[in-house]
Design the sequence.
């Protein structure tokens, strides 16, 4: 099965009147395996409202994780969410890509403060 990345608009809960534009992606090989995507969100008037960094990786300590970070137009971290498994494992656990995307959504609104860093295992 080919790798199918998430539908980022679903994860970020992008309003339908906004546009999400990919700025790029980066991948790296073993032993630190992973991929990162970078997106910009524009409102209906074309103003930049947010930037996102999404990741699916095995980090320096060998921990598997996937998640995202949301920044305002000025580069300040607004929100983040992470699960302690790779994207493919999350899809398998949730039995669908859509279920995995929902598991990666943040539960509160876009304007909430950044919670303390913690790992969350999606059940």
Sequence:
């Amino acid at each position: 099965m080919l790798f199918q990345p998430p539908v980022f608009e679903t994860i970020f809960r992008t309003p339908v009147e906004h546009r999400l534009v990919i700025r790029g992606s980066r991948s790296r090989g073993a032993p630190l395996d992973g991929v990162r995507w970078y997106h910009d969100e524009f409102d209906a008037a074309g103003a930049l409202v947010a930037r996102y960094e999404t990741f699916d990786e095995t980090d320096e300590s060998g921990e598997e994780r996937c998640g995202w970070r949301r920044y305002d137009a000025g580069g300040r971290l607004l929100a983040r969410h992470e699960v302690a498994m790779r994207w493919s494992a999350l899809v398998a656990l949730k039995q669908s890509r859509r279920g995995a995307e929902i598991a990666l959504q943040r539960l509160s609104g876009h304007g909430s403060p950044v919670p303390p860093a913690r790992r969350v295992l999606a059940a």
